[in-house]
Amino acid sequence: MLANFLTPAYLPFAIAFFIMIGIGLIEAVGLGLGHLDLSADVGVDGHEGVLDWLGLSGELPILIWLTSLLGCFTLTGVAIQQGVSTFFGAPLTWPLACLSALIGGGLLNVGAAHGLARIMPGYESSVISTDDLLRRRGTILEGVARRGSPARAKVVDQHGQAHIVMVEPHDDTTVIRAGERALLVRREGQLFFVLAEDNSLLRSI
Q1: Greatest CA separation found in the chain?
Q2: I want to staple 145 with a disulfide (CB 3.0 to 4.6 A). Which of 28, 52, 151, 190 is the partner?
Q3: Residues 144/177, Cβ–Cβ less than 8 Å
Q4: Which CATH code is given to the segment(s) 130-202?
Q5: Pairing of strands 191-196, 162-169
Q6: Domain residue spans in the chain?
Q7: Separation CA 53–CA 64 (nearest Å)
Q8: Sequential pLDDT tens for the chain (205 residues)
Q9: CA nearest 146: which of 119, 129, 166?
């Protein structure tokens, strides 16, 4: 069997097998390369349904999905070549075997991917949108924030990660100095507008 695995008829499946092992090792050591959000920002109707069907739009990391696909492709290809050899005395040519294995392995991987997604722990991303910083308090780091003269401020998000943003007072007459805190209330592009901590509107918050 091992000798057959290195013949041209089986070589694509041998390559797929070794790639699968390599990707599996990457995931095993926890490099975190597999977590890609393929379903975000899908703008064309029907694409999300296709991704769902393939098992790609849930919590399954892309490299785990790819490892599963390579495994299904390898198993299906070897099974096809073994079956054809048994009945006809010789395996299929590698292009025909690859096409057959890709179709069969792809269908098999649909079920495998959905099964893996159910048993794997969910992946929680700490990536946030810029707008998620709104309604959070920040601290002016240096300089003085005035209308038309923004200053740098540090804001800590819900995951405990610090973000450095440029802020201006929401009110024309307000001045916010280094070390003072303010509430981010709106955003225009990359610039945030804030209410000073001592603003009367914030006394009850």
Answers
A1: 89
A2: 151
A3: yes
A4: 2.40.50.140
A5: parallel
A6: 2-119, 130-202
A7: 16
A8: 566 667 888 888 889 999 988 877 776 665 444 444 444 444 444 444 555 555 555 556 777 788 888 999 999 999 999 999 999 888 899 899 999 999 998 889 888 877 777 776 554 545 567 788 898 999 999 889 999 999 999 999 888 888 899 999 988 889 999 999 999 999 998 899 999 887 666 655 5
A9: 166
In this structure, the dihedral spanned by the alpha carbons of residues 126, 130, 135 and 139, taken in order and rounded to 10 degrees, is 90
Pairing of strands 181-188, 137-140: antiparallel
Structure-token pair, residue 58: 């849930």
Read off the amino acid at residue 135.
R
Asked if 183 contacts 135 with a C-beta cutoff of 8 angstroms, the reply is: yes
The one-character DSSP state at 61 is -
Q: Supply 85's token pair.
A: 């050899």
pTM higher than 0.70: no
- Whether residue 94 contacts residue 12, with contact meaning beta carbons closer than 8 Å, is answered with yes
